[in-house]
Write a structure and sequence with these properties.
The structure holds 2 protein chains of 2 kinds. By secondary structure, chain A is an alpha/beta fold. Chain A contains 9 helices and 5 strands, in the order ααααβαβαβαβαβα. In chain A, strands 2-1-3-4-5 form a 5-stranded parallel β-sheet, with helices on both faces. Classes of the chains: A alpha/beta, B alpha/beta.
């Protein structure tokens, strides 16, 4: 099979959410000597864009988005060491994420993490019911590009505001995005975050934009 | 002023039956743990410490907020049911208590693996302390108010609690495991229902939490497979009317009402009154509870005047002809300004007295 053909197959396998095929095609491309950055940009990123369009057109739903993201992660697992060798630094950007204190819902947060990892971002997951002090402590150590605060409960809006206040009070200047179906422009303004997202796909787009503005695309 | 629960019962019965003999628009407000503990100045642990405390605090908070319904927080097929599963499967370490918030189970912990799904034990609700306290508290409320206490059921809300995000992978990669889990939850929900009938009395309707019916999460076909078919079975088994609750932001209200009979739908999305006006025309026998009154909008971030305007707008658009209840979706949030909460019942008093002319 020609390398371009394998690249097409890689994209298709990600779109279909087939982890095994995505792994196999990525390995074949690496073995054929393809530039890892090209595999990432022309394969994984292009496939992601297509998955996003399908999701936005409601031809794909959360399960399809999730298994496509799993296939991206599988491909990225092969590329990550090679990309790190090339750039000798943290991959594409770093994100610190967690569900805020008092909220133990994890579905949205876990989807967000899978989507981010599928794009090659380094993600630190603090889990659920995370106290503001824990976000502050970890952000000081890790200096993430973006901090994502998630929540499902209406009461989480107040907790998100408290967390943002503490982060800013400690001079942590990472971009802060809040995520969850509860959010609106008004709620985001009340929280004092830089932006908000009501679903994982929107969150991915906005975090990518933040990181590109920080690190350059 | 003493709360007139008999008048509330009449209002709710009238609105659900489509009777024109109704004095004003009912207030279908959920006063749950956050608001009860805030109003009564107690913690959630204290609230659940005895049936008497649970019942009296719930009555006090509902009467303060001036709702026309009174229901217990546990009776909602999500966290309460997950707690029953946690206890039956020796996973109480997954239960998280908060001072003033709903007691929760960490999502995806109880059925993390396929084996855990397959070996999942069905709870006997009469042996779960929280449920037993709830049955006793419901009896007290019924005795004190005459307000019939209703059961809450649901499948997907419980799936999400037990299996977490893995449930969405299962839909494509492991549908048999997911179907087995849904069957087990169905069995557990029927146990909860039968215990309720035995210990509390008949449930005039079932409040059904249908979280699968959300277009941002799954296709309508999948929603029917993992939730809809179970609703039909529940309906056949219980023989009582169902109210469908979905507080997501892209619910399949029209699609599901074409397939399954509901006496009412309870949601706040889409936030477009024209959708709800058309829904009322298309489904004239389905009562609308809520429409565009979203707890995350005016009630949380606005002023009492904003809340009044929102309630007024909904009443004038949907209450003429009946079959409409004001209902902020979802539970009244414990962090919302109290003047905003109180503005809801004031606005109903001001604009919701029949006859109401279309605005």
């Amino acid at each position: 099979m020609q390398s371009d053909e394998i690249l097409t197959k890689l994209k298709e396998s990600i779109i279909k959410g087939n982890k095994e095929e995505a792994t196999e095609h990525t390995k074949s491309l690496v073995e054929a000597g393809f530039d890892p950055t090209h595999i990432l940009e022309a394969g994984i990123v292009k496939a992601t864009e297509e998955v996003g369009k399908l999701y936005e057109r409601m031809e794909y739903y959360l399960p399809d988005l999730l298994i496509a993201a799993d296939a991206m992660v599988a491909a990225m697992d092969i590329l990550k060491p090679l990309l790190k060798q090339l750039f000798d630094e943290k991959l594409k950007g770093t994100v610190l994420i967690g569900a805020v204190e008092g909220d133990v819902h994890s579905i949205g947060k876990n989807l967000m993490i899978t989507l981010l990892e599928g794009q090659g971002y380094e993600v630190v997951d603090l889990g659920t019911d995370v106290a503001p002090a824990k976000f502050v402590e970890t952000a000081k150590e890790m200096k993430p590009d973006v901090i994502g605060l998630g929540g499902l409960l209406t009461t989480s809006i107040t907790t998100m505001r408290d967390t943002v206040l503490q982060l800013r009070g400690e001079n942590i200047n990472s971009k802060i995005i809040v995520g969850g179906g509860i959010l609106s422009q008004e709620a985001c303004a009340m929280i004092g975050a830089d932006d908000f997202a009501t679903d994982g796909w929107e969150g991915l787009r906005k975090i990518k934009t933040f990181i590109e503005s920080i690190r350059g695309s | 002023m003493v709360h007139d629960w008999n008048a509330s019962i009449k209002r709710i019965q009238s609105v659900l039956s489509g009777s024109k003999r109704i004095d004003r628009v009912p207030y279908f407000g959920f006063v749950l743990e956050q608001m009860i503990t805030r109003i009564c100045g107690i913690s959630v642990r204290t609230l659940f410490s005895s049936p008497k405390t649970y019942a009296h605090s719930t009555m006090m908070a509902n009467e303060y907020v001036n709702t026309d319904i009174i229901t217990l927080p546990t009776v909602y097929a999500g966290p309460g049911e997950a707690i029953a599963f946690a206890e039956a499967n020796d996973r109480t370490n997954a239960i998280k208590w908060f001072d003033n918030k709903t007691v929760m189970v960490e999502q995806g912990v109880i059925c993390k693996t396929e084996e855990e799904c397959e070996k999942l034990k069905i709870p006997d609700h009469s042996k779960v302390k929280l449920w037993d306290t709830t049955y006793e508290a419901a009896k007290i409320i019924y005795q004190k108010t005459n307000f019939p206490q209703n059961v809450g059921l649901g499948i997907w809300s419980v799936v999400q609690q037990l299996r977490g995000i893995q449930a969405y992978r299962d839909m494509r990669e492991n549908p048999e495991v997911l179907s087995t889990l849904c069957e087990k939850i169905y069995e557990s929900q029927m146990d909860s229902y039968h215990n309720w009938i035995k210990k509390v009395g008949p449930s005039p309707f079932v409040f059904y939490t249908g979280y699968a019916f959300n277009r941002s999460m799954m296709s309508f076909e999948d929603a029917m497979k993992y939730e809809g078919q179970f609703i039909k079975r529940f309906q056949k088994e219980t023989g009582v009317p169902f109210i469908l609750h979905n507080c997501g932001f892209a619910p399949y209200f029209e699609e599901i009402c074409e397939k399954i009979d509901f006496v009412a739908v309870n949601g706040s999305h889409p936030l477009d009154l024209n959708f709800w006006k058309n829904f009322k025309k298309k489904f004239p026998k389905v009562t609308i509870i809520g429409a565009t009154i979203d707890v995350n909008q005016e009630i949380l971030t606005g002023t009492p005047e904003d809340v009044e305007a929102k309630v007024k707008e909904n009443i004038l658009a949907l209450a003429p002809g009946g079959r409409y209840c004001v209902g902020p979706i979802c539970e009244l949030p414990g962090n919302a300004p109290l003047p905003n909460i109180m503005a809801i019942s004031s606005a109903i008093e001001k604009y919701g007295t029949y006859p109401i002319k279309e605005g």
